[in-house]
Amino acid sequence: MFKSFGKTEAKSPAQPANGVPGNSAEAASRVTSTALRSLTQTDKDLTDRLELKTRLHEALLERLNLSVIDKVQTEELRREVANLAQAVLAEEKRPMRTEDFKTIVDELMHEVLGYGPLEPLLEDPTINDILVNGHDQIYIERFGVLEQTNVRFRDERHLLRIIDKIVSTIGRRVDESQPWVDARLPDGSRVNAIIRPCAIDGPSLSIRKFSKKPILLDKMIELGSLNDEAAGLLRALVEARMNVLISGGTGSGKTTILNAMSRSINEHERIVTIEDAAELQLQQEHTVRLETRPPSPNGTGAINQRDLVRNALRMRPDRIIVGEVRGSETFDMLQAMNTGHDGSMTTVHANTARDALSRIEQMVSMMGLDLPLSAIRSQIASGINFIVQLNRLSDGNRKVMSISEITGMEGETITMQDIFVFKKTGKGENGEVLGDFVATGMRPKCAEALIAAGVDIGQTSFLTHGGGKS
User: Is the domain of 107 the same as that of 118?
Assistant: First the structure.
């Protein structure tokens, strides 16, 4: 029955090929039992470690004066934490290796000064998103791929304490009467939290990390998100004070490219930014940052984006930048773009450039004003000059899919022409999306305005084959 090169020998049914005595079912059962015991031991070790850290943390809270922690040097605080941990371990007669002891001290420092178990994930530059689904299930996105981690909170109360620590630093709250909140970390990373009763299985926390080193257009070229010619056009649009709408889906990189494009704004211009949670990282000194405010516990005092846009018009801005338009503030943003605040920019959620125009139209209509569609579309066509469309592709990479110019109106339809597009050509061996950035050959209608603004648009970039209106 068994064939081999050279010598042939029969094996007893009681001695399988893997050398484990007994039949294959018994062997498989023993292997499974061993694996389960190993898994159970791992879970037990993790539980013991969390319980130990809980005891140490409680002892720490009892003995530390939290009101003066900010005034204590980090190294001095670390020594105090290490001494306390050593004393507790001695009381429990629990020996610990030096490496494990250092890890425990690090984790306690994270609890006191940072965001507990999240700190190592926040410090990892390769992680883009941190997704907490309850206290014992944490996922991350790295290089466009989701993966589960072995990081966990002690319990739901521990997770709620960290959520409260995050949102309270910017004057926001989350409780049963207001069970969700948008917030940000000190570095601008975006945070959303939702708790019971809306989150049925326990608190959920989503963190969209921002790179500590801002991503510039040159870096995007290096990453393949766009090419040199397209980046040159984006810089030219900003320098020539064109109004730009950046469109894309969730996680497509809208805020990242808005930050990158803003680098081309003249240092002598006054910029006012308006956001729900301040995320923009503009480098210009003359920037006024405005942020919305949620209602107080009694339901009063809310300040929304529309209030801030209307106020910004009285602040003598050269440019207004709205982090993302979601509602009635869209109308006021269009008014600003049409009344002398050239060079303004904003972002919107949409899957295509044409969809972005439809969303803008719908949001203006939601105001309840009795405006005909033709009037709304005319405002859009005269206010917005270009739409930059971004998509997150199936391989996790983010690409600029098109740079489209709004050319005017034909009847009641807003007309556009693509200046650059990303054309997919297939998939690589590892599943990566293949394609090329192509100039459509259409000369921008605003080319003369760009030249008049002193911008060298490099006309040959637009004279390749192809082209057409959308």
Answer: no
Beta carbons within 10 angstroms of residue 384's beta carbon: 25
DSSP 21: S
- 241 and 322: one domain? yes
Distance of CA 307 to the CA centre of its chain: 26
Q: Quick one: 235 and 360 in the same domain?
A: yes
pLDDT (tens digit per residue) in 241-282: 999 999 999 889 999 999 999 999 999 999 999 998 888 888
Decide if 314 is inside a domain: yes
Say if strands 244-248 and 345-349 run parallel, antiparallel, or are unpaired: parallel
pLDDT in tens, 293-325: 988 878 788 999 999 999 999 999 999 999 999
Q: Is residue 468 part of a domain?
A: no
Residue 154 DSSP code: S
What distance in Å separates the CA atoms of residue 328 and residue 30, rounded to the nearest whole number? 65
Quote the tokens at residue 457.
């648009």
pTM of the model: 0.77
Q: Are residues 128 and 198 in the same domain?
A: yes
Which of helix, strand or coil describes residue 248?
strand
- Show the tokens assigned to 309: 């846009």
Maximum pairwise Cα distance, the chain: 94
Is 2 within the bounds of a domain? no
CA distance 159 to 194: 11
19 part of a folded domain: no
SS3 content of the chain, % helix, strand, coil (to 5): 40, 20, 40
